[in-house]
Design a protein that fits this description.
The chain is mainly alpha-helical. Helix content is 69%, strand content 0%. The protein has ten helices and no strands.
Length: 176
């Protein structure tokens, strides 16, 4: 009950990263969960509980080890990375928007988020691309790449493969 109250009443966004092992586990569990939802399998609650338990354990581990409070400027900035128009910006433009120099912005971003601002931006870009690839088959991969601020399609493909272990074209085929 105390844990629930702490999570629900947490003042700022909760940030933590998953190790590759934890992420793989959660991803595989989500695939199983998806199949169960379709087939109305009775083990749904068990899989769902294991996913939630893993996420909560990671959150607890992160909150225990968290030594600093996320600054307000970062709390306001991070949701903007979910906007297609915003991720067209490069890191220098994003740093300028915060009013900080690029070196200070980069240092503070990595300190509080755990990865560099460029890595974070590229991850957000490819996740937005994944949604666009699945939703809109009329958009060409080249157009999506440009729309999300990648300088060229090969850079886009490199980051997409790095994140999802398949090319954008392969993902589009499998997402139908």
């Amino acid at each position: 009950n105390q844990l629930y109250d702490e999570i629900v009443n947490y003042d700022s966004p909760i940030f933590f990263s998953f190790s590759n092992d934890i992420f793989s586990f959660l991803f595989n569990q989500s695939l199983i969960l998806k199949e169960m939802l379709v087939s109305k399998n009775k083990f749904f609650e068990t899989v769902y509980t294991s996913i939630i338990t893993t996420i909560l354990a990671q959150w607890i581990r992160a909150s225990v080890s968290q030594k600093t409070v996320v600054p307000q400027w970062l709390t306001e900035l991070l949701p903007k990375f979910n906007n297609v128009n915003f991720v067209q910006n490069n890191i220098t433009q994003i740093a300028r928007e915060t009013g900080f120099s690029l070196p200070y912005f980069s240092t503070q971003f990595k300190k509080h988020v755990g990865i560099s601002a460029i890595e974070y931006l590229n991850k957000k870009r490819v996740h937005l691309a994944k949604d666009l690839l699945a939703r809109d088959s009329n958009l060409r991969i080249l157009d999506i790449s440009c729309m999300l601020g990648f300088e060229n399609p090969s850079t886009f493909s490199k980051h997409f493969i790095q994140e999802f272990k398949q090319t954008p074209k392969e993902y589009r085929k499998t997402s139908k």
